[in-house]
Specification:
This protein is α+β, with helices and mostly antiparallel strands and 602 residues long. It is built from 20 helices and eleven strands. Helix 9 (287-323) runs parallel beside helix 11 (383-419), helix 11 (383-419) crosses helix 17 (513-549) and helix 17 (513-549) runs antiparallel to helix 19. The radius of gyration is 25 Å and the shape is globular.
Length: 602
């Protein structure tokens, strides 16, 4: 079975759970998003994804990218699909109007991104990274740079990359060695010569677009040591003349492409900068602060990577489970046949419902984050409203990225399990979902780093102030629905979250940082389960209200209520185990001397 965009569920979340039509009526960009137009955008986006991207997913996995002396060629059909993407104006959907964009709300673009990732993860990364580059340039570069570089990026004629990692430093960017010197030979203000080597650069070199803009971290000569001495530069593949025309090749080249476990259709490159001309787009030594514009955009993208793979694997596993006949069910479905469909068996349902819970719950979380992105960026909202949205995003971004990337591996592995031996072979495409999903737990900071960001940098460093807006949101929901059983079930775990945060905080305040490290991932996963519980409770209440009114598809609404019950019965109890594990502390983790980890006969 090929992936189909779940438009019915996307519209349920957008219109009924999050009330996006009312949200769009409150700001200028949103007023462009009239309900009929949004429906038409989603319909056409679904057609593009299903007709052009889905057929290329297997092609990209099997063929991969080709490298020949610095030249990278993408798999067959990728370039043509990208040109259709550009010709139909999709890259400009949410771009700023002053640079040729259509200025639709960011939340609409994020929903389309879910469709593209689900259809073809590898292909989606080429335009996906460009969105982060565009936002970074638009937010931090001076007007001259924006006038020169933004319009072709918004149109999709040029693409972008994020250049952070180096061979000797992964997440510890304070160890970075790439450096920048003032380009004395250039008459251009703010021009530098960038030198160094970057690795794991997604979409670093390819044949889809006529130019590539690299967003590069490097050190200035007078930079202090550590992460506080990094600056941010824009380095084009081809130099760009003042009139916008392309000049000669810059001193940036692809040294090789990586042979990866998954996402074979995306070129993951070693990029070498040899006195490449670049432009400073952050204040000197303030590059990490500027780069977080790109990083946070990408974190939300990676959260969608995880959720998308859960959704695709669920669709394929469900189709198989309805068709595959094995053994007799307790209540016979096919009395005239020798066996019943495996969806009748309780254990198969356990796996399918777990996939569905993460796929559809993750969609609600991601689309809610998209709504907060809209608010945080629009001048039409008050300062208080924007700051509130930013505060919610600060907490929800590491949760969404960490939790949905972790659960995606569980969901895609369950997809293989449901198909049994057929899932393990390539023919059915289930094992590709596992391989492609795996990178999401590493991109933009591992799950451990997301946990440390959430618990350490956000919550404990602010003595709980950072999490207050989310707790207030939960409090309001519980108060407004105090008599509803779904809200009451959520309240139980919401209270446990507060208690857990206090207990971990007391341990860390005593100065034992191992306690923070030991708790971080399980705390993040606990937060993820409770946050998805909030959205499942919210969806169930919306569905109950719709059934009471007699509106819409009764079976669809009933499924949301049943899913909320399954989530609390079968998945939410995992959070209790995490409370106990965190409570046991770091002692057993740190007790064993490193020399006692393994004993080998010599």
């Amino acid at each position: 079975m090929n992936y189909k965009v779940p438009l019915k569920d996307i519209r349920f979340v957008a219109k009924e759970v999050l009330d996006m039509p009312t949200h769009y009526s409150k700001f200028t960009r949103g007023k462009n998003a009239e309900p009929d137009l949004v429906d038409a955008i989603f319909d056409e986006a679904a057609k593009f994804c299903e007709n052009e991207l889905v057929p290329l997913n297997k092609v990209g996995d099997e063929e991969g990218c080709h490298f020949d002396d610095g030249v990278v060629t993408t798999p067959k059909g990728f370039k043509e699909a990208y040109q259709d993407f550009v010709n139909n104006g999709w890259p400009a959907l949410c771009g700023p109007a002053e640079y040729g964009g259509q200025a639709m709300p960011e939340s609409i673009g994020l929903t389309m991104m879910e469709m593209m990732i689900s259809s073809n993860h590898s292909w989606s990364m080429y335009p996906g990274l460009s969105l982060g580059a565009i936002k970074t340039i638009h937010t931090h570069a001076n007007d001259n740079i924006k006038e020169r570089f933004m319009r072709p990026m918004v149109a999709g004629n040029w693409t972008g990359t994020m250049c952070l990692t180096e061979p000797h430093c992964g997440s510890d960017l304070g160890l970075m060695k790439s450096y920048a010197e003032v380009d004395d030979s250039s008459a251009e203000e703010g021009a530098y010569k960038i030198s160094g080597s970057k690795i794991f650069i997604s979409s670093g070199e390819h044949d889809l677009a006529e130019n590539i803009l690299h967003i590069v971290l490097a050190r200035l000569p007078d930079a202090p040591k550590g992460i506080g001495g990094i600056s941010l530069f824009l380095v084009p593949k081809f130099l760009v003349n003042e009139d916008g025309s392309l000049g000669e090749r810059n001193g940036v080249s692809c040294g090789s492409i990586e042979e990866k476990m998954g996402i074979h259709g995306n070129s993951t490159c070693v990029m070498n900068f040899d006195e490449a001309k670049g432009y400073l787009i952050s204040p000197p030594h303030k590059g990490m602060r500027a780069m977080f514009t790109f990083i946070n955009e990408s974190r939300l993208g990676v959260a969608m990577h995880g959720q998308a793979h859960s959704s695709v694997s669920f669709q394929k596993a469900l189709a198989y489970a309805k068709d595959r006949e094995q053994f007799r069910a307790t209540e016979r479905k096919n009395p005239d046949r020798p066996a019943d469909p495996i969806i009748c068996h309780a254990d198969v349902r356990r796996m399918l419902l777990t996939q569905k819970a993460f796929a559809e719950g993750g969609r609600m979380l991601n689309m809610f984050c998209g709504k907060q992105v809209d608010i945080s960026l629009s001048p039409d909202f008050t300062d208080e409203e924007r700051h509130h949205a930013e505060a919610l995003l600060a907490i929800l971004t590491p949760i969404a990225k960490g939790f949905l990337s972790e659960t995606s591996l569980e969901a895609t592995n369950l997809g293989i399990q449901i198909l049994g031996g057929h899932g393990f072979i390539k023919e059915w495409g289930m094992e590709q979902e596992v391989r492609d999903a795996r990178i999401s737990q590493l991109y933009e900071g591992t799950t451990g780093i997301q946990g440390l960001d959430l618990l350490g940098r956000k919550i404990l460093k602010t003595r709980g102030a950072a999490i207050k807006p989310l707790m207030e949101l939960f409090d309001e929901f519980v108060g407004d629905n105090r008599w509803n059983s779904h809200a009451r079930r959520f309240k139980k775990y919401f209270k446990k979250w507060k208690s857990l945060t206090r207990s971990v905080g007391f341990k860390v305040m005593r100065g034992d940082m191992d306690e923070l490290n030991a708790a971080a991932v399980e705390y993040l996963m606990f937060a993820g389960y409770v946050t998805l519980g909030y959205f499942w409770s919210r969806a169930a209440i919306v569905a109950e209200e719709a059934l009471e009114k007699g509106d819409g598809d009764a079976d669809f609404y009933q499924s949301k209520i049943e899913m909320s019950n399954f989530y609390y019965d079968r998945l939410m109890p995992r959070a209790d185990a995490m409370i106990e594990s965190i409570g046991n502390g770091a002692e057993s983790l740190m007790a064993m001397d490193e020399d006692r980890f393994v004993f080998l006969d010599v």
